[in-house]
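Researcher: I'd like a structural prediction for the single chain below. Treat it as a standalone chain; there are no partners to consider.
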Amino acid sequence: QVRLVESGGGLVQAGGSLRLSCQTSGLTFKIHTIHWYREAPEKQRELVASIGSDGSANYADSVKGRATISRDNAWNRVTLRMDSLKPEDTGVYFCYVKRGGTDFWGRGTQVTVSS
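Model: Treating it as a single chain, here is the predicted structure.
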């Protein structure tokens, strides 16, 4: 059974940093692209960053230059580091993977950036 567990969220002041972690289990981690999404209040869930099986990374324009996504295939884990946080980064951050045509989401971790 695929399981994604996010951690690392919290309350941080604008300009601060956070490191979010997505611990996975139940899948052949190294072959999958893993994504981070976020959902702000009254807004649609949006893609923040993705990392491919080859380590290639993609970022939303809104976080480009402030976010770094990385993966650890030995520990089946993806990390999203975000710097220079802004109040508009506030939201619930979710880890996502598609395996065999099925979507798997974690429960999310709350990030709140105060101004």
